[in-house]
Amino acid sequence: MTALWVTLALVATVALLLRWQRPAWYWMSFGVLFAVVRVLVRYSSVMDACGLTVPPPRWRLALARMTGRPVPDSKAPRILRLRPTRTGLVLRVKLRPGQDAFDFSAASDRLRHSFVMRNVTTREIRSGVVELRMTGYDVLKRVQMPARPGGGVMRVPVAMREDGEVYYRDYRQVPHALNVGATQSGKSVYQRNLVAALAGLNVALVGIDCKQGVELAPLARRFSALADNPDNAADLLDSLVEHMHDVYQLIRREQRLSADTPDAEITADIWDLPDGLRPTPIVLMVDEVAELALFATKDEEKRRDRIITSLVRLAQLGRAAGIYLEICGQRFGSELGKGITMLRAQLTGRTAHRVNDETSANMAFGDIAPDAVLATVQIPTDRPGTAVVGDSSGGWVRIRTPHLTLRRAVNLCNAHASRTPEIPALDAFRPVLPSLAKTPAAAASTVPVTA
Ligand SMILES: Nc1ncnc2c1ncn2[C@@H]1O[C@H](COP(=O)(O)OP(=O)(O)OP(=O)(O)O)[C@@H](O)[C@H]1O
Asked: d(Cα 228, Cα 237) in Å, to the nearest integer?
């Protein structure tokens, strides 16, 4: 008997320790079982308390009255499926007549504490069927991405969402994005995660890093072109615009060829081109965009206008040519001068890390997802890497990136260096790696790269 008590005490201690120190492990070992039992046992009473039941039909009430039987209870939505996941539970229910998905999203906070879960989000997956995604612990406290997060063509895993799902950056769905945040909020780590995820794909990475290349130069082995000051950046962007026009010419040529063949697909963008003809898609990463928009002299002002015009052109026309923009900065508003709001309107993907004021949050979401502004302002200082992402559909979600060190990102880029494609139009901006530098002077004039 004593042995049993000792074992139980030991198990309870281990469970408490895990819950405190390793919530993900606690969830997988103990939490999931307790949560399943809790949800199943409390389901009817919780639905009733949250106002998610429907009264019995009148004919049943009348029948009960006539026959003197007890009045039938209100009915909760029928459980279709309860599935445990590595971060929580997914409960799928069939709505009763008269219920709608909005009832569930309005009750998500009540459901959260009634089922003792960390977070509950709801969505209607098809007419009359609602899915409740519940997380069992704070998945953003210590981000652990799944071992095989999946992905697809131009769709890469970047962070963990607060509902326990992986957040993917999908360039074909949302071609251009803006990433804002105060200093030390985690923008560079977000960008690093993007680079690391893209490194293994058939894609050309092009970087503009006006912090003298401090963020992107170490990853240069996987970059096809890199600019580390506004002068270089202006030339690089001009060349990229030229490359875009060449790709359009190629698409037009293919369209002319297929126009006379009745059954042939008409090419509208690079993804419709045959594999052998398709130019490599390009992701342009711009770090600290405000540096490109600032000027002190007349010449610098001309250069600034050239840069912003090229960026607007790429944002307006780049998608079909397979050029995608990822623009990063502390603020991105009209104070940066003409052309900025026009550019911002084209950057439909928005990510906002912690900001210092509501105006900065408005720069990210004011025009597309006003609800996300409050969520952005509330990001705590002690959680770098936490961000709110939204798009032009008005939806938004909290995410946090895994803490990818620069060392690991460099190793990943080096491991995939052989995948770095050559883009002839951008040849002049190819980062010269130490092994290729011929003289110390030549090496000094190029962006240094860590091995
Ligand atoms: N997801 C994360 N988890 C834990 N720590 C993080 C995460 N993201 C960033 N950090 C830490 O926060 C600090 C700031 O990160 P980062 O350099 O990415 O911020 P930033 O917004 O780019 O800052 P700046 O604009 O000053 O360059 C770093 O010390 C980094 O290690």
From this structure: 12
* Residue 153 neighbours by CB distance under 10 Å: 12
Q: Which residues pair with 123 in a beta bridge?
A: 131
CA distance 417 to 218: 12
Maximum Cα–Cα distance for the chain, whole Å?
Answer: 101
Q: How far is it, in rounded angstroms, from Cα 211 to Cα 203?
A: 24
Is 186 annotated to bind a ligand? Reply is yes
Alpha-helical segments (H) within 72-124: 101-106, 108-114
44 marked among binding-site residues: no
pTM: 0.84
Mean pLDDT for back-to-back runs of 10 residues, the chain (451 residues): 86 87 88 94 94 88 85 90 94 93 92 93 92 93 86 92 92 94 93 95 94 88 94 95 95 83 78 90 94 87 94 95 94 83 91 90 84 90 93 82 95 94 92 57 41 35
* Residue list, ligand 1 pocket, CB within 6 Å: 181, 183-189, 384-385, 400-401, 403
Q: Report the pLDDT value the prediction gives residue 440, as an integer from 0 to 100.
A: 45
Q: How many CB atoms lie within 10 A of CB 248?
A: 15
* 8 Å CB contact between 176 and 349: yes
Using the atom order of ligand 1, give the atom closest to the CA of residue 353: 21
Dihedral in degrees, nearest 10, Cα atoms 241, 243, 245, 249: -170
Phi, psi of 80 (to 5 degrees): -90, -35
Range list for CATH 3.40.50.300 in the chain: 155-444
Domain 155-444: give its CATH code.
3.40.50.300
Q: Whose CA is nearest to atom 25 of ligand 1?
A: 183
